């Protein structure tokens, strides 16, 4: 008889964050060729700059989320993140 151990809510949160990050980054990687074709090879316009800024700021925004989700939980975690930012 198998014993089923319930998952810790923190572990479930980490799986959710990891799965959503993988899906987002996969989508990002799939659309890079289109970005190169339509944005990088065209004349620079404000709209092109805004689209690229939105894409890359969003990707960079995942870094602190992943760090906070998967760093060992200590009292200094928030202090470390504040120093990085």
TrEMBL record:
KW Transmembrane helix (keyword) present: yes
A matching Pfam family: DUF6533
Keywords: Membrane, Transmembrane, Transmembrane helix
Residue ranges of domain DUF6533 in the record: 15-59
InterPro entries given in the database record: DUF6533
TM region positions: 15-32, 53-71
Lineage: superkingdom: Eukaryota
Protein name as catalogued: DUF6533 domain-containing protein
Source organism: Schizopora paradoxa
Origin organism lineage: Eukaryota, Fungi, Dikarya, Basidiomycota, Agaricomycotina
